[in-house]
């Protein structure tokens, strides 16, 4: 549904300095019906990517194809027609205060010239679809943050787009409302078959809703793949952020080791659970205790980050040689492990 080929965007620097490369040869494919997350720190190129997808920015080079149409090659009426396949949901819905929820939803249909009867029918469908029954005549000041975002989602779906672009749609919401909005977006994908591109810096959002994810750094794709493959690859840059390690207790009299593991086809004999790590330690003459950990099951695979406290059978911390042997064994089995400071 969405295909980017060699997408590059270079901005001239003010005052004639070195140009700014916002996007540097991005290749990406998002299949129809997927929810795909785009993550990265500020300045990674996420906003420029959105503007290129919507045709608000022309790429310096490369192609932006949505449902087979190269958005980057279009102008004028053709571009406006292609944009009808794109719905947008923003961090702040920016509703018109003078309009009710229903009239805010109807606004893009009015601009498109849809007649009053068809408009009213479509708005009624959308109000029910996003769960705003009984609130459609309220103005923005009378709505909660979650209800305002539901209006924004309905407005984005008004023209029946094939793709919904969500730019930080939950970052201004509390955790409970965030879960409700993410559940709604997933439900809409399932019911309507739309493709969703989720721009976010919140890893919890990616874990909750995304089928696949791409990490941008400096305008380049650093890692991309299905959520389960990315999360279960302890060698990848996203694994530690998707599966964060909580703080461990202090004052432990043992050697501490941080372990990132996941089911990896490249290491068929690697550990598949935290219990496997404990058993592996025992095989090397160490008594391991899990003192901290985050374990997730994604698409049936267990992935996690745990901190082990290692002692010998007498209860003392294991020796340098024993620790080195254990770390070497973990590395051979695909586990990313390092000694932590107590």
TrEMBL record:
Family matches, as SMART domains: AAA (SM00382)
Return the InterPro entries for the record: AAA+_ATPase, ABC_transporter-like_ATP-bd, ABC_transporter-like_CS, MetN_ABC, MetN_ABC_transporter-like, P-loop_NTPase
Q: What terms describe the molecular function in GO for this protein?
A: ATP binding
Q: Looking at the keywords, is Nuclease present?
A: no
Q: Domain of life of the organism in this record?
A: Bacteria
Q: Does the keyword Transport apply?
A: yes
Pfam families, alphabetically?
Answer: ABC_tran (PF00005)
**Xref: PROSITE patterns:** ABC_TRANSPORTER_1, ABC_TRANSPORTER_2
Domain ABC transporter residues, every copy? 2-243
* UniProt entry keywords in alphabetical sequence: Amino-acid transport, ATP-binding, Cell membrane, Membrane, Nucleotide-binding, Translocase, Transport
What SUPFAM superfamilies does this protein's entry cite?
P-loop containing nucleoside triphosphate hydrolases
Its name, as the record gives it, is ATP-binding cassette domain-containing protein
Organism of derivation: Brachybacterium equifaecis
